[in-house]
Amino acid sequence: MTDVKALQQERIQLFTDLYDGKIPKRVPINASFSIEFAIQYAQKDLGELQWNTPLLEEAFDKVGQDFFTDYNPCGLSLRNPLHYQLLGARNFVMSSSGFMQHPEVHGLEAEEYDEFIASPYDCIMEKVLPRIYKELDTNPSQRSIVFAKAFKAYYDEILSGVATAQRVNDKFGYSPIGGIDVLTEAPFDFVADQLRGFKGITGDLRRCSDKVLAAVEAVTPLMIKAGVSPKGPSKYGNTFIPLHMAPYIRPKDFEKFYWPSFKKLVDELTAMGYPCMLFVEHDWMRYIDYLYELPENTRMWFEYGDPQLVKDKLGKKHIISGFYPITLLKTGTKQQCIDKAKELVDILAPGGKYNFGFDKGIITADSVNAENLQAVLQYVGENANY
Asked: What beta strand segments (E) does 137-184 contain?
């Protein structure tokens, strides 16, 4: 137990040094596995464990025994099926295979922009939510009961997950620092994801661009509020912001509709003491100079792009992660996988401000070769010393 506590303190120091702008003893490892991966890897039933989450600890134990990471790689599930079922969700549904999926839906019609702009919160509560969640499409009294049940289920699962994560952290010496505290969205992404949908928003940029801009600006205060962690401000916390739409819109639309509100979101959260962790989805290389303008030590988890360019442009100001292609873990030899890890460490580690991670979360057990995954994590843990 003493050795585990010492290991945990060492890992905590890795992340505090990283966030303090110091060069850690070695490169911290922050790999992201889904709970579905953990369940499948432990050869448990995917449906059963997502409905009976206390059983997840056994799956997390198996992951902890077999894979070397500094932060608990499985974390909490934000997509637990119980509260979605109670709400009658259309936006997140469990497939027959047991995976939660996000169909293309929209909750706001184009002709309702003016109403949304005038009062985003009221419009979301009265119109958007009852369309996305079927059980809310009822009278106010019944709606309140459904809301209460869903919130109770959600927070029961969160509290259970936090307790499980604490036990797993203590068992394997994981750092409690380095993960996600709360999630929000770039204002444009929020309007696109849940309100208008991908097809709707791309058409709106042509048909009613002035209303899109007004809607994005109107929802920005809500996104800032959503990004405030209940734990309170801390430079060691992370407000997670997955970035969706920017690579799919024209640069002039990015400059007008996406960037200003997104920068305001990150600037204000950081100023209040809530550093942001961005999942820079797809390829943002044409916008890399914009990313430089964000507050110092913004955490940036890259999916695709040029690691050397990112290091040269951003590596002295921001904290970088990602880039390692999980597809290689499936298709490559063990040596090829290790060589890729060495390549990325050699590029991104010098000078600090880097933690090792994959280009995306690992969702299914059959999407990687477990032996390759083990070898890569072991290599980085043993060789990425400063």
From this structure: 182-183
Specify the 3-state DSSP secondary structure of 245.
Answer: coil
Q: What type of residue sits at position 116?
A: F
Instruction: Read off the pLDDT of residues 92-149 as tens digits, 9 standing for 90 and up.
Output: 887 767 777 778 889 999 999 999 999 999 999 999 999 999 999 999 999 999 999 9
**Beta strands per DSSP E along 262-363:** 276-280, 299-302, 319-322
What whole-number distance in Å separates Cα of residue 285 and Cα of residue 94? Answer: 34
Q: End-to-end CA distance of the chain, in Å? A: 27
CA 319 to chain CA centroid, nearest Å: 16
- Output the CA angle 96-101-105, nearest 5 degrees: 120
d(CA 268, CA 273): 9
The counts of H helices and E strands in the chain are: 19, 7
β-pairing, 299-302 with 239-243?
Answer: unpaired
Instruction: Compute the C-alpha angle 255/258/263, nearest 5°.
Output: 95
Do residues 24 and 14 touch, judged by C-beta distance below 8 A?
yes
